[in-house]
Structures are given as C-alpha cells and as structure tokens.
Specification:
The complex is a heterodimer of chains A (265) and B (281). Chain A has 265 residues and is an alpha/beta fold. Helices cover 28% and strands 22% of the residues of chain A. Chain A has a domain of 119 residues: P-loop containing nucleotide triphosphate hydrolases (Rossmann fold, 3-Layer(aba) Sandwich), CATH 3.40.50. Chain B is mainly α and 281 residues long. Chain B has one domain: MetI-like fold, CATH 1.10.3720. Chain B contains 13 helices and no strands. The chains are: A alpha/beta (265), B mainly alpha (281).
Chain lengths: 265, 281
C-alpha cells in the first residue's frame, strides 16, 4: 500500500475482545485514511475505551488484527491519551507529562529522566499549550479533573506517535475548554490521523470528518459527518435504556451493574 | 427477609464453636483466676512491687562506669539497633518485593503479548521469592537473634541482623502486595507510551505506592523498637540485656527503672513516627 503523504493508514479488521467472560467488542472493522479525523461516539459501556486500548497496545485482541500500512504497529506508533484518572497523583504535572519521553530514552538516563526538573523542554511547552503553564510543578492530585485530563493529553502528545488517539478528552471539562482542547488536538496532531472517543454529540458532528457510532460492542454506523442524521444519533443513545438525551451534561451515567434492579431483587 | 433465620442460625453455630475453643484452650493453659487473688500470691505481688520502689536512678546505674555499661547507653543502643535493622530490611525488601509482585513478574499490563517462556519464568521467580520471604517472616526475630548470636557472638550486630532478616520478610511481602494492588490502567498508560518494562515499573507502578511504603516503613520501625527491647534476652544487645540481668540478680529497683525506660522508648517512637507520618501527608 503506497502512502506518499507519509501519514499512516490504519486498518482494523474483525477485532473481538472479551474481558472477564463478557464480549466487549465483537468483529469490529474499519479503516482510517491518512490525516482523517474520526469521532467514536456511543453511550458509556459500549466498548469505546476497550477499542482505543487495543489500538494503543494496552490490550491484545482475542481475534482479528490491527495493522498500520499493512504491518502490525510498533509499540508506540499509536499514542493514546488515557483518561486523566490514569496519572500518578503524587507526582507533578511535569513529571507525568515527561513519562511521554520514555520511548525515546533508554538505560539509566531513561529511568531517571522523569524525576528531573527540566526547564524549557518540550514537556513544558506542551503543558503551556494545554493551558497549564503555571501548573508544571503542581502535584497532579491537587489538580481538577479537567486539568488532569489536559495533563494526560500533553503526555500522549509528547510521546509523538504517528497516529493519535484520545479517550474522552473532553470529559469533566466546561464547554469552552472542551472546544479549546479539541482545537488544540487538531493543531498539534497536524496531518496525522486522529481518533477520539466522545460522549458529546455536538462536538462529534462539528469537528470531525467521520463519525463511528458504537452500540453494544459493535459498530452501529460509520459515516462521513455530513451523512450522519439526528435519528442515527438518537437511536444510538436510546439503545442504552437508562441513558439521557445529552449524556455529556448529565451528572453521571448509571453504572451498568445496576441494570436489572438490584435494589428490588 | 426469608434468609434472616438461617443467618442467625449460622451465627449461633459460630458462637458455639468459638466458646468451645475458648474453654478447651483455657483448660490447656490451666487458666485459674483464683490463683491471682489467693493470699500468698497477693502478698508476693505486693512484696515484689514494694521491693521495686523507688526506682534506682543512681548515676552508677544510669551512666555506668564506662558509659557503655549504663542504662542510658543501652537505650541508645536499642534505638540504633532498630534503625540499622529497619534500614537494612528496607534495602532488602525493595528488590525482593519487585521480584515477588505478580504485577511486576508475570501479570497485568506489562505482559500484554509476552512470550509463554517469559511468563513461566516470571511466575517461578515470583513464587520462589514469595517462599523465601515467608520463611524470613515465619521465624520470629528473637529466634533469628539466637542464630546470629551463636554464629557471630554476643552483641548488637547480631540483633541488627536478626531484625533485618525478619523484617525483610514482613516488609517485602507488604510492598509486594502494594505493588499488586496498584491501578493497572495507570501502568498501562505508561507502558503504551513505548516504555520498557523496567521504566513502566519505575514510573507507572512505584510512584503509586511510595507514600504508602514510607508510612508503613515508619510503622514497622516502631515495631522493631519493641522487638529490639527484648533481643537482649538472647544476648543480641540493647536494653533487653539489662532487663534480664536485673531479674537474675533480683535488683528489682533497677528493673523498675529499666521498665520505665522501655515504656519511655516506646512512647518516644510513637510520637516520632506520628510526626514523620504527618510530614509524609
């Protein structure tokens, strides 16, 4: 597959994943063309995070394959911005971001690097870019949920993968910061493909080329953004019986384990 | 609501079993509270307390002739034994815990797509080191003290090694359990950046537990002070030797002083430890 632009071509075919006995993803297939911006939408618990973790290499598929330009990807080729809860709370924002440099460092220097201060390097630049220039030396457990989210994004961007993934980068953010984060991703990602899991329908349709709707571990639709109808979106979220019309503004979505009325049984 | 009577019956059963164990054990240890209040026992206890008062605070006992044979020196020595013993134990427990935590050796996000050979060898190391730590822990510090005194002769160094070995077993298991309870997603996020396993352990797993490890180390140090106080009974240095000597020589006034000193030492370590823990936040 020739690829003159230098931007990679991601192919996911027939990927299935079971986690502790239940099938979380079944036979997921799609392709991401060079430079494409894709939103993966769907209610909580449909497998968006699992899909991203499979792509990032944090999990291995039980069946199917993931290839970049026809070959299995290098460990750090696909960089996922995990949710902000996966940062190390006792360390500073800067130390957490500098973890993104680990792939390019080895030996003793690589082991000690994130412990060092580091003044004007790229990690500090990225923190400034996500609006946390004044928080570099603040411990992560003293940051708000939204600020942690941005630290996690900076960490993934520092790792410099050729394909960028983000898991709910706008969760816990106010509407203004939400669009500024997506704008930031857009700028920093450049010509690289971008795949973002989102809860927010409006953001998905306003800022991406393509929308993949997920329901119950499968792909419900996969359309260019112009072809996505309101009906399709409504169906997606209605499938989750206890969900809300606008999950992103609801205080919290019901936990899947509570389905079946455990209170009354 | 229908399950309540069966729950109650199960609890009644447990109580009966517990009561039977208690009675049988009491019979085995010849438990006899009447002995405590028997006139002869009362007289003897009273005589003992009287002969222990007032405590001996003479300079010759507290400081001794050469400083090193006084009670104050024994207190300092006990503290020193506990500090070096705990320090050595931490130095051994850290690598041992890394080698015996399943999340470091063969399970979880670090081993996504690892070879079967790697997993099997990891499991072997994990099991082996766990067994070793169990053995260190199962033998009480005072028994290690007897062994080291036999091998190295009398003195505080034997006490240091006894505490170090036993507490390596305790802290090693504790740290390994902490490592196994770390959040796997946090480690996964570091590993998928492209970090090596060692890097992911250093920057994903270890920073999650450093604060807990520090606070448990201080707690364990408190415990080693109490162990160090009795190690002297087997000749492994510290204040325990004074306790033993005074009992053997029937110097009850000195015994009282030594007991007060142990009490003071424990209070001091309690206070110090809580200060350190507070500063760890």
């Amino acid at each position: 597959m020739s690829n003159p632009s230098g931007s990679p071509f991601l192919r996911v075919s027939g990927v299935t994943k079971r986690l502790s006995g239940t099938t979380v993803l079944s036979a997921i297939s799609f392709v991401v063309a060079p430079g494409e911006r894709i939103a993966v939408v769907g209610p909580s618990g449909v497998g968006k995070t699992t899909l991203l973790r499979l792509l990032a290499g944090g999990l291995t598929p039980d069946a199917g394959s993931i290839t970049v330009d026809g070959t299995p990807p290098d460990p750090h080729q696909l960089q996922l911005a995990y949710q902000g809860t996966t940062l190390v709370g006792h360390r500073t924002a800067l130390a957490n971001v500098r973890v993104g440099e680990l792939a390019t460092q080895s030996g003793v220097a690589g082991l000690l690097a994130p412990f060092g201060g580091g003044g004007t390097d790229r990690a500090t630049e990225l923190l400034r870019a996500v609006g946390l220039g004044d928080k570099t030396d603040t411990r992560v457990d003293q940051l708000s949920a939204g600020q942690r989210q941005r630290v996690a994004i900076a960490r993934a961007l520092l790792a410099d993968g050729s394909i960028v993934l983000a898991d709910e980068p706008t969760a816990n953010l106010d509407p203004q910061t939400r669009s500024s984060i997506l704008e930031l991703l857009d700028t920093v990602v450049g010509s690289r493909p971008l795949l973002v899991a989102l809860h927010d329908i409006a953001l998905a349709t306003s800022r991406f080329d393509r929308v993949i709707g997920m329901a119950d571990g499968t792909i419900a639709f996969d359309e260019p953004v112009a072809n996505v109808t309101d009906g399709q979106m409504a169906d997606l979220f209605a499938a989750d019986s206890e969900s809300h019309p606008h999950p992103s503004v609801a205080p919290s979505s019901p936990s899947p384990t509570r389905h079946g009325g455990g209170w009354y049984g | 609501m229908g399950e309540l009577p069966s729950v109650r019956r199960r609890w009644q059963g447990r109580l009966v079993v517990g009561a039977v164990c208690l009675v049988v054990s009491g019979w085995i240890v010849s438990f006899d509270p009447a002995k405590l209040v028997a006139p002869t026992a009362r007289q003897q206890l009273l005589a003992f307390v009287q002969s222990g008062l007032p405590p001996d605070l003479s300079r010759s006992y507290l400081v001794g002739r050469t400083v090193r044979d006084g009670l104050l020196w024994a207190i300092v020595e006990t503290l020193a034994i506990s500090i070096v013993g705990t320090g050595l134990a931490v130095c051994c427990a850290v690598p041992a815990s890394l080698l015996s935590a399943s999340s470091v050796t063969h399970e979880g996000p670090l081993y996504v797509g690892a070879s079967e050979w790697r997993l099997v060898s990891g499991r072997l190391v994990h099991t082996g080191v766990r067994w070793l730590l169990s053995f260190c822990r199962a033998v009480p510090a005072i028994v290690w003290g007897v062994l080291f005194v036999t091998a190295l002769g009398l003195g505080p160094f034997a006490g240091v090694l006894a505490l170090a070995v036993h507490n390596t077993g305790v802290l090693g298991k504790l740290f390994a359990d902490f490592l196994e309870e770390t959040d796997p997603l946090t480690t996964e996020a570091v590993a998928t950046v492209g970090a090596s396993r060692l890097q992911a352990v250093c920057h994903g797993m270890v920073p999650q537990i450093t604060a807990t490890v520090a606070s448990y180390t201080v707690y364990r140090w408190e415990c080693t002070i109490r162990s160090a106080a009795v190690l002297g009974f087997v000749g492994a240095g510290g204040i325990g030797y004074h306790l033993l000597l005074t009992v053997q020589r029937l110097q009850y006034q000195r015994l009282t002083t030594a007991i007060i000193a142990v009490f003071g030492l424990v209070l001091l370590s309690d206070w110090l430890a809580s200060r350190v823990r507070a500063s760890l936040g």
